[in-house]
Design goal:
324 residues; 2 domains; two-stranded antiparallel sheet; 15 helices; globular
């Protein structure tokens, strides 16, 4: 027994020394590391054996859930709760909560705090997913590690009073794990089984693994790929860049150089890209009266910033005004 403990301690010391040799400042969060790793391994195994044959309604419903869960993140946690880019009436708030729960993310409070830290201390040691630590860390590695001291101290500087004082969010946060279990896993899986007789194993494959993990990694590309590849028409002095691939798979979140220049803009982009589903949905909810006070940068503001700080890449406006 004693020998086993010594071996285990030696293993952990070896891992920590390896981390330090790479310049890592975070300890591995073993519960998260093991859970994330095993979930991916199980997903590959399960989908290899049970994803096919599949009925066409299952594919359509998986696509619908992909868009809905994505909007819960982009239109909800990101543009609405983090940046307050628009205001929402109660029906839309409840809809955003359900969509966010279906994405299987951390709680809205955790999500908002991490993202506000990211904007305030972007790509520094205080950034939870600092892109200077490499693609793996900024993509998913940061979720497998404990936050370093700089991130923890930065978190104490973030004003979260709007989130903490929101009565609806307080209730949502209290029961979040149960709500997430229902709307991310149980309901999406069982709907296909009940309504069109999909095999339960196939339904699990498409909802719990393919749909969930595809959206999960799509959203993570904003932290990794959009901080590594692309052009910078608005601010050449920051790492975030415009990345069409990321914009496509996240349904509108890849215009990242613009977003960091104008984080308050509800579009998170300077133009109305046809794949920017978050923007289209917010505009739809404005038309039916559920969303209002949509904030956006004017062409004059965009033009001025692009001229002073941009890398010279042409920018595109919904009007005829452009950078000369």
């Amino acid at each position: 027994m004693e020998g086993t403990r010594i071996k285990r301690a030696s293993f952990y010391e070896l891992v920590r020394s390896f981390e330090k040799s790479l310049g890592y400042k975070n300890d591995i969060k073993w519960t998260s590391f093991i859970a994330i790793t095993l979930y991916h391994i199980l997903g590959v195994y399960w989908c290899y054996h049970y994803a096919f044959p599949v009925k066409w309604p299952t594919l359509v419903f998986a696509a619908i859930m992909y868009v809905a869960s994505g909007f819960g993140i982009t239109g909800g946690a990101h543009r609405y709760w983090t940046h307050k880019a628009y205001k929402a009436k109660l029906p839309l708030k409840l809809f955003l909560m359900v969509c966010f729960a279906s994405a299987g993310q951390n709680s809205i409070k955790q999500w908002v705090r991490d993202h506000r830290i990211h904007h305030k201390f972007s790509d520094t040691e205080a950034d939870p997913h600092n892109a200077n630590r490499g693609l793996f860390f900024s993509h998913i590695g940061w979720l497998m590690m404990k936050k370093n001291d700089e991130v923890l101290q930065a978190g104490k500087q973030i004003d979260m009073s709007d989130i903490e004082n929101d009565v609806h969010l307080q209730i949502f946060e209290k029961y979040f794990n149960y709500i997430k279990l229902v709307f991310c896993y149980i309901l999406p899986t069982t709907i296909g089984i009940w309504l069109w007789g999909e095999d339960w194993r196939c339904s699990v494959a498409w909802q719990c693994f393919i749909r969930f993990l595809t959206m999960f990694h799509s959203e993570l590309t904003v932290n990794s790929l959009a901080h590594a590849y692309g052009y910078k028409p608005y601010n050449r002095n920051i790492i975030p860049a415009e990345n069409r691939f990321v914009a496509t798979c996240t349904l509108g979140e890849g215009w990242h150089n613009y977003h960091h220049a104008f984080p308050f803009d509800y579009k998170a982009a300077e133009h109305f890209d046809f794949l920017n589903f978050g923007t289209w949905f917010i505009q739809f909810f404005e038309k039916i009266g559920w969303a209002y006070d949509l904030r956006q940068a004017t062409p004059g503001m965009i033009n001025s910033i692009a001229k002073r700080l941009g890398d010279g890449t042409p920018v595109h406006f919904p009007t005829s005004e452009c950078v000369e």
